[in-house]
Write a structure and sequence with these properties.
With 380 residues, the protein is an alpha/beta fold. Helix 8 links the parallel strand 11 and strand 12. The radius of gyration is 22 Å and the shape is globular. The N and C termini lie far apart (62 Å).
Length: 380
């Protein structure tokens, strides 16, 4: 009887191992053929990576020791992540995406937020898109979290004659395959951290339209200076490309305007360095959302986001990386609520425009707590 039970257990074990192997093989094969996964760097892209002081020969490194959290840290969070009652708005956002006017060569700067970390910046007669994740699914598969409901979709077809797209890193909620496909023919140039250009090449964008920058390197878009600066994060789109491409924050400077975009990343001494080298900034777009105690090094708490905005010497700060997706266990409004409270304590000027609202930097300081319209009474 004991031998029979052992044989049955052995057969079940073998069956389970085979299922895991088959699933793993299919998953690995899928990442190699599905275009949305992109490509790992090679050729001249890889040569530049190997010459980077931020690359150790195997992968990119942060400036200080950084943990990205383990599977065992994340697994206990799944029930709350999937079933939290405060994870989404109670009704669709009543968005009203304003038409983009013709380009004008003047000193004014306009900002339009599309939710999460996606922006259109109009500056010195140029249109610059940042991290244009403009579709509904921040994943390589049509499963998982979806964009919070908008009454009308983001009008990607209205985004034309784009002078530049800036990408902070290659995670799916920042580098979106479908968005890039729709924008690539109307975009003149792409700026990315090292290695990310390989994904764009695999999606049909010519090398001549791609500029990759290492931390502290810069490039010119007409009279506008674009500078890659450090962040504290990680990268990867598949099963075998962890940290094979770089991540970055970005500085956009014209004669009249200076903007800092934090990208994704945890708190660290790089903010003070950025402030000393390139501050002050008229506006700092500061990552604030999708944080958790299970991964404290790669996403900032709202209080840290405000502190970082102060350290880069920002005159005005705006919380980003919230308002579109539920990628952590906190309520969807917690990031902006805590950010606002901390900014008031630190006497810092904060803006929080509604999604799709085009604002003029230096003139418009939206202060309506619009998110309260989309919360249940018990959550106020």
């Amino acid at each position: 009887m004991a031998n029979k039970k052992l044989n049955t257990l052995f057969r079940y074990t073998i069956f389970l191992v085979l299922i895991i192997l088959i699933f793993g093989t299919i998953s690995y094969s899928y990442t190699k053929v599905a275009p949305q996964f992109g490509e790992t760097p090679e050729g001249d892209f890889l040569t530049r990576i190997n010459n980077s002081p931020n690359y150790d020969g195997e992968q990119f490194k942060n400036l200080i020791e950084t943990s990205t959290g383990s599977l065992w840290d994340v697994l206990p969070l799944l029930p709350k992540l999937l079933f939290s009652e405060q994870s989404t708005p109670i009704k669709p956002f009543e968005v009203n995406f304003e038409p983009i006017p013709d380009k004008k060569m003047d000193s004014l700067c306009y900002i339009t937020w599309y939710g999460h970390s996606a922006f259109l910046i109009e500056l010195e007669g140029k249109r610059i898109l940042i991290d244009p994740m403009l579709t509904d699914n921040p994943s390589p598969l049509p499963i998982g979290t979806k964009r919070f409901p908008y009454e009308s979709p983001i009008p990607i077809d209205q985004l034309t004659d784009i002078d530049a797209i800036i990408i902070s890193h290659d995670h799916y909620d920042h580098l979106d395959y479908q968005s890039i496909l729709q924008l690539k023919e109307v975009t003149n140039h792409f700026y990315t951290p090292l290695g990310v250009g390989s994904h764009l090449i695999s999606w049909g964008i010519p090398t001549s339209k791609i500029t990759e920058l290492d931390w502290w390197e810069d490039s010119k878009l007409s009279s506008i200076e674009i500078i890659a600066s450090p962040s504290r994060h990680f990268s990867g789109r598949g099963l075998t490309d962890r940290d094979k491409t770089q991540w970055a924050s970005w500085i956009i400077k014209s004669e009249n305007t200076s903007i800092y975009f934090s990208g994704d990343g945890g708190y660290g001494p790089h903010f003070e360095d950025i402030g000393q080298k390139y501050g002050p900034f008229d506006l700092a777009l500061m990552e604030c959302g999708q944080y958790n105690d299970a991964w404290p090094d790669i996403h900032m708490l709202p209080e840290q986001s405000v502190a970082a905005g102060n350290e880069v010497k920002a005159k005005v700060i705006m919380p980003i990386h919230w308002g579109a997706f539920n990628l952590s266990t906190h309520s969807w409004t917690e990031p902006v609520t805590r950010f606002k409270k901390e900014s008031e304590l630190q006497n810092m000027t904060m803006i929080h425009p509604f999604i799709g609202k085009r604002i003029q930097l230096g003139q418009d300081y939206p202060q309506e707590e619009w998110w309260l319209r989309y919360m249940s009474e018990s959550a106020h």
